[in-house]
């Protein structure tokens, strides 16, 4: 991927920069347009920091009307647009393009409505994920999907990435918790999908928009459902001599009809890095560490904790600690939550991968990763959302060593190929972006990708929104729309008819 | 007039390829159990998936099931039950409402109609449980989307786009759903004798509590008697369902009883009795009266539902009951007129949502938009999306016309 090729910057657009900046200024006054190189530096990358690119100009609109006018102008003038929330994408989804307007939604930062009887919050897209919970927690409510980046990432970005988090095993992903959207299409049309009611009318455009990575439209308002906070939560910290036993324990818990509020696993290198960093008493003599959190009414939690403990022991756990207080529960999580920075301490750089596999394939995939680690000469530490088979291998490398980034990327690509091979997918929650773009053919045929691109064409016929992301090769909509007629005689004597 | 009944995905592909080349419209059906919904088809040819059947993958430990699109839903539910699992979104069965036997329908139809049930409030609809599809577009091209794992953001969520598309975008040949364990027990707390507005308040209170209520419905006086052959009696019943592990249910029931002790007379429905009630409400049995009186299924914000029906009744006689805390209103038009414009205007006036005419005779369905008409920009987008899958409009043309 260091060979990453982005769409060629359009010379004509570059030459018209002054005119485009002036047009943006005419739409968004004052500090809403950022154009100096120094100021634009803040926006040159997202959380996939291996890639940097200054945009043509940065625009920070404040109203839906401004967004509509910006998009209409860009559409009419053939100018590309990269939407951006907080810039925490791990896949390069909000990486700027040299010839594109970077449309930053961070000034859309207000909660518009809190409706307790219907248990929904209506928010502007720049509100942070945590900001929604903060707005309702005094009344005992919260917004369930909780990406680790929740203090920073925007709800609009969550919609665009269909983000997940520890709680998603029990409470669903962003897609299952968003009820309505307002969005602006590239032609400037403003449309509303869904609302405070369930199931939007007509086609499930809400479902299509969720996870569309800024390629289909710009989200300007989000309606999410909120939930009552569970009365209690307790966690169990379980260590196993082998990852197979850990994997089997996860399967048995789910097999017993228990869907925990969170179920996370770490492998030995990740345990060690986390324990060195935060010292919370993780056992260092185990191959797999499982954190299982049960939430709900106390009677239920007590009942299930006992079940989980029994299942863990039956699977040969060597450590099994049950949190006795909320402080202890949080300490169990502290190491897991600090896993990324902890790994950051032991290695100058790391790449965070994001494949998902059928749970039963975990031992095979871990063994495969060990082999790949030797092959590429790089270390890997693993944290996973164990309940749903979503792996986050962290590949350690040093960008200052020539060739190491390329090796790390090759290693990552090999891991994802392995995930696909065992029946899994390239990305569970971080998105395709630029990072996994060129791996899409590992999972999809040309026909699969063509149909996805045709959907893109229905929203954005000139490929102006976030080009160079998701699709390895952009084909013109006119070409995609052409029909190859399969010359038609009435088919098959062999198909039954009556 | 040809009825195609392919038995393999390859045969489906060749039928659609032929139809695309000839620009010959197809009515796409499973077992045809929901033919009574949507604008009546006027196609010369029918593509029936009823013989494209069979579960091709079921891994209980992985909570995943793949089946050919024409697999009977009854077969799937039975298989899952053998492993103590279920489709958690409780797909409703439109059969009885349309005067047909219960138990018909295919898994592909479940997705195409985005079915759900009383547990929709907590567990979502078919759209929330579909993981992947194989399909043939109206262009006559086979494609796949999604996969077999829950966490997956690789490419657009095209599987979700099939939910509620009523076979107008592509013909699904295989569908993969997430499945979940059946709750150990269920219990329902019924509050008796509440008026609609009191019920709305009680349901909001219960849903906003930590009792983890998985379904909340209100069956007013006059309708209650038609639930489970009169087992509920005739007084209005506001129903709160609790599911899970016995110790948890006992605790949560207590919590609700305490919270609602002054709301009205409380009654507890255990196990099978609770199940029977929710099954009847799921399938709209109270209005399964053997008539063609128009029935609306309205999705709107819960707190406004009873006000909408109150306003409606100022002008026309209608019976109603409420599921999803009120967010789902089932309306039967007692004078036999659909009153589409009036119903939709009232839904708009009460905070928005959408009304689908789920029962009406063919003449009415040919004249009245069954699915909610959309504002121009949205409609134009939906038409472009349709064209991206089916440029010659050969799959169920006009079925969703609004
Ligand atoms: C430390 C760390 C931990 C993380 N943990 C998790 C995790 O646990 N789970 C998880 O799922 N992700 C995680 N992420 C990834 C990231 O936080 C999420 O993808 C998040 O949703 C991105 O939100 P954002 O506002 O930063 O979006 P950006 O990075 O700004 O944009 C992401 C994508 O969304 C598009 N976009 C943004 N706003 C809009 C809008 N209003 N309309 C249309 N398109 C828009 C952009 O074009 C881009 O394609 C983590 C990231 C970091 C750095």
UniProtKB/TrEMBL annotation, chain A:
GO terms for molecular function: FAD binding; oxidoreductase activity. The keyword Flavoprotein applies. Keywords: FAD, Flavoprotein, Oxidoreductase. Residues 51-229 form the FAD-binding PCMH-type domain. Its cofactor is FAD. It comes from the Bacteria. InterPro entries: FAD-bd_oxidored_4_C, FAD-bd_PCMH, FAD-bd_PCMH-like_sf, FAD-bd_PCMH_sub2, FAD-linked_Oxase-like_C, FAD-linked_OxidoTrans_Type4, Oxid_FAD_bind_N, Vanillyl_alc_oxidase_C-sub2. Pfam families: FAD-oxidase_C (PF02913), FAD_binding_4 (PF01565). This is FAD-binding protein. It comes from Mesorhizobium denitrificans. The lineage of its organism: Bacteria, Pseudomonadati, Pseudomonadota, Alphaproteobacteria, Hyphomicrobiales.
Automatic annotation (TrEMBL), chain B:
It comes from the Bacteria. Coiled coil: none annotated. It holds the Pfam family FAD_binding_4. The keyword Cell membrane does not apply. GO terms for molecular function: catalytic activity; FAD binding. InterPro entries: FAD-bd_PCMH, FAD-bd_PCMH-like_sf, FAD-bd_PCMH_sub2, FAD-linked_Oxase-like_C, Oxid_FAD_bind_N. Residues 1-182 form the FAD-binding PCMH-type domain. Keywords: FAD, Flavoprotein. NCBIfam families: PRK11282.1 (NF008439). This is Glycolate oxidase subunit GlcE. It comes from Mesorhizobium denitrificans. The lineage of its organism: Bacteria, Pseudomonadati, Pseudomonadota, Alphaproteobacteria, Hyphomicrobiales. The gene is glcE.
């Amino acid at each position: 991927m260091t060979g990453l090729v982005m769409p060629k910057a359009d010379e004509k657009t570059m030459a018209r920069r002054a005119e485009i900046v002036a047009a943006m200024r005419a739409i968004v006054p004052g500090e809403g347009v950022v154009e100096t190189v120094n100021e634009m530096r803040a926006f040159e990358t997202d959380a996939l920091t291996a890639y940097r690119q200054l945009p043509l100009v940065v625009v920070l609109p404040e109203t839906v009307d401004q967004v509509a006018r910006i998009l209409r102008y860009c559409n009419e003038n053939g100018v590309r647009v990269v939407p951006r929330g907080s810039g925490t994408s791990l896949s390069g989804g909000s990486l700027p393009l040299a010839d594109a307007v970077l449309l930053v939604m961070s000034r859309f930062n207000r909660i518009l409505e809190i409706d307790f009887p219907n248990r929904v919050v209506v928010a502007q897209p720049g509100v942070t994920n945590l900001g929604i919970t903060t707005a309702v927690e005094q009344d005992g409510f919260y917004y369930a999907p909780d990406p680790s980046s929740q203090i920073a990432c925007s709800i609009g970005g969550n919609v665009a990435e269909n983000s997940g988090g520890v709680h998603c095993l029990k409470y669903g992903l962003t897609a299952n918790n968003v009820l309505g959207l307002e969005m602006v299409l590239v032609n400037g049309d403003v449309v509303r999908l869904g609302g405070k009611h369930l199931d939007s009318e007509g086609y499930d455009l809400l479902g299509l928009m969720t996870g569309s990575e800024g390629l289909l439209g710009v989200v300007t308002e989000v309606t999410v459902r909120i939930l009552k906070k569970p009365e209690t939560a307790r966690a169990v910290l379980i260590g196993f001599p082998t990852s197979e036993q850990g994997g089997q324990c996860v399967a048995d818990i789910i097999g017993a009809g228990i869907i925990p509020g969170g179920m996370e696993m770490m492998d030995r290198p990740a345990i060690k890095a986390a324990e060195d960093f935060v010292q919370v008493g993780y056992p260092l003599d185990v191959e797999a560490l499982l954190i299982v959190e049960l939430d709900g009414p106390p009677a239920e939690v007590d009942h299930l904790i006992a079940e989980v403990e029994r299942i863990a022991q039956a699977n040969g756990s060597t450590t099994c600690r049950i949190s006795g207080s909320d402080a202890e529960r949080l300490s169990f999580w502290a190491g897991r939550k600090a896993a990324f920075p902890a790994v950051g301490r032991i290695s100058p750089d790391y790449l965070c991968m994001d494949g998902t596999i059928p749970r039963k394939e975990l031992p095979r995939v871990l063994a495969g990763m060990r082999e790949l680690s030797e092959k590429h000469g790089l270390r890997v530490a693993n944290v996973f959302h164990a309940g749903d088979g979503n792996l986050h291998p962290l590949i350690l490398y040093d960008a200052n060593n020539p060739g190491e980034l390329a090796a790390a990327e090759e290693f990552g690509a090999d891991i994802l190929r392995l995930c696909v091979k065992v029946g899994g997918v390239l990305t569970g929650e971080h998105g395709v972006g630029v990072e996994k773009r060129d791996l899409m053919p590992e999972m999809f045929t040309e026909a699969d990708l063509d149909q996805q691109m045709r959907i893109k064409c229905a929203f954005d016929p000139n490929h102006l929104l976030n080009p160079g992301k998701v699709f390895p090769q952009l084909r013109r909509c006119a070409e995609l729309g052409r029909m190859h007629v399969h010359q038609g005689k009435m088919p098959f004597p062999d198909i039954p008819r009556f | 007039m040809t009825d195609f009944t392919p038995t393999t995905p390859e045969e489906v592909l060749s039928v659609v390829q032929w139809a695309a080349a000839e620009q010959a419209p197809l009515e796409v059906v499973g077992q045809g159990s929901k033919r009574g919904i949507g604008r009546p088809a006027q196609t010369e040819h029918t593509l029936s998936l009823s013989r494209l059947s069979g579960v091709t993958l079921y891994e209980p430990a992985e909570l995943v099931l793949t089946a050919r699109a024409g697999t009977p839903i009854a077969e799937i539910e039975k298989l899952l039950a053998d492993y103590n699992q279920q489709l958690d979104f409780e797909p409703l069965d439109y059969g009885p409402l349309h005067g047909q036997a219960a138990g018909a329908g295919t898994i592909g139809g479940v997705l195409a109609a985005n079915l759900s049930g009383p547990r929709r409030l907590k567990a979502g609809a078919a759209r929330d449980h579909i993981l992947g599809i194989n399909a043939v577009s109206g262009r006559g091209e086979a494609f796949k989307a999604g996969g077999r794992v829950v966490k997956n953001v690789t490419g657009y969520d095209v599987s979700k786009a099939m939910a509620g598309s009523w076979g107008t975008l592509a013909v699904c040949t295989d569908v993969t759903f997430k499945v979940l364990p059946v709750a150990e027990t269920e219990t329902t707390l019924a509050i008796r004798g509440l008026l609609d507005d009191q019920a709305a308040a009680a349901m909001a209170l219960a849903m906003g509590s930590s009792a983890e209520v998985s379904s909340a419905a209100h069956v007013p006086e006059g309708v209650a008697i038609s639930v489970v052959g009169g087992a509920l009696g005739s007084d209005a019943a506001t129903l709160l369902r609790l599911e899970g592990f016995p110790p948890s249910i006992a605790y949560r029931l207590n919590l609700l009883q305490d919270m609602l002790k002054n709301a009205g007379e409380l009654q507890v429905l255990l196990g099978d009795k609770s199940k029977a009630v929710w099954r009847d409400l799921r399938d709209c049995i109270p209005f399964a009266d053997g008539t063609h009186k128009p029935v609306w299924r309205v999705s709107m914000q819960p707190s406004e539902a009873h006000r909408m029906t109150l306003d409606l009744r100022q002008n026309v006689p209608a019976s109603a009951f409420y599921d999803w805390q009120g967010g789902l209103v089932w309306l039967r038009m007692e004078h036999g007129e659909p009153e589409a414009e009036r119903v939709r205007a009232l839904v708009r006036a009460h905070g928005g949502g959408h009304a689908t005419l789920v029962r009406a005779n063919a003449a009415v369905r040919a004249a009245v938009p069954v699915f909610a008409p959309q504002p121009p920009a949205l409609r134009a987008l939906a038409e472009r999306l349709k064209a991206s899958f089916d440029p010659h409009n050969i799959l169920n043309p006009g079925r969703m016309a609004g």
